[in-house]
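Input record (one chain):
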Amino acid sequence: MLDAFIIEELKRRERERIHERERPQPSLPEPEERDEPRRQSDDEPLKPPQRGVVIVDFAV
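The corresponding structure, as predicted from the sequence alone:
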Protein backbone atom coordinates (compact mmCIF):
# COMPACT_ATOMS: atom_id res chain seq x y z
CA MET A 1 0.00 0.00 0.00
CA LEU A 2 1.17 3.56 -0.76
CA ASP A 3 1.78 6.19 1.88
CA ALA A 4 -0.89 8.85 2.32
CA PHE A 5 1.61 11.48 1.17
CA ILE A 6 2.16 9.70 -2.17
CA ILE A 7 -1.58 9.25 -2.72
CA GLU A 8 -2.24 12.94 -2.03
CA GLU A 9 0.62 13.93 -4.34
CA LEU A 10 -0.83 11.81 -7.17
CA LYS A 11 -4.28 13.36 -6.63
CA ARG A 12 -2.78 16.87 -6.61
CA ARG A 13 -0.93 16.25 -9.89
CA GLU A 14 -4.07 14.86 -11.52
CA ARG A 15 -6.04 17.96 -10.44
CA GLU A 16 -3.31 20.18 -11.92
CA ARG A 17 -3.42 18.27 -15.23
CA ILE A 18 -7.20 18.65 -15.40
CA HIS A 19 -6.90 22.35 -14.53
CA GLU A 20 -4.29 22.85 -17.30
CA ARG A 21 -6.61 21.27 -19.90
CA GLU A 22 -9.53 23.47 -18.81
CA ARG A 23 -7.48 26.65 -19.04
CA PRO A 24 -8.44 28.65 -22.16
CA GLN A 25 -5.80 28.66 -24.87
CA PRO A 26 -5.05 31.98 -26.60
CA SER A 27 -5.67 31.89 -30.31
CA LEU A 28 -2.94 33.29 -32.50
CA PRO A 29 -3.94 35.30 -35.56
CA GLU A 30 -3.25 33.68 -38.90
CA PRO A 31 -0.34 35.32 -40.73
CA GLU A 32 -1.52 37.66 -43.44
CA GLU A 33 -0.34 37.26 -46.98
CA ARG A 34 2.72 39.33 -47.72
CA ASP A 35 2.30 42.42 -49.78
CA GLU A 36 4.28 41.07 -52.71
CA PRO A 37 3.84 42.50 -56.17
CA ARG A 38 1.72 40.33 -58.45
CA ARG A 39 2.26 39.78 -62.13
CA GLN A 40 -0.63 40.25 -64.53
CA SER A 41 0.85 37.64 -66.83
CA ASP A 42 3.99 35.55 -67.10
CA ASP A 43 5.46 37.95 -69.68
CA GLU A 44 5.16 41.00 -67.41
CA PRO A 45 8.15 41.44 -65.03
CA LEU A 46 7.63 41.93 -61.30
CA LYS A 47 7.49 45.52 -60.08
CA PRO A 48 10.04 46.31 -57.37
CA PRO A 49 8.51 47.12 -53.97
CA GLN A 50 8.28 50.78 -52.97
CA ARG A 51 11.04 51.81 -50.63
CA GLY A 52 11.75 54.98 -48.74
CA VAL A 53 14.15 56.63 -46.35
CA VAL A 54 13.28 58.34 -43.08
CA ILE A 55 15.83 60.68 -41.53
CA VAL A 56 15.36 61.55 -37.85
CA ASP A 57 17.44 64.42 -36.51
CA PHE A 58 17.79 64.49 -32.74
CA ALA A 59 19.97 67.61 -32.67
CA VAL A 60 18.98 70.12 -30.01
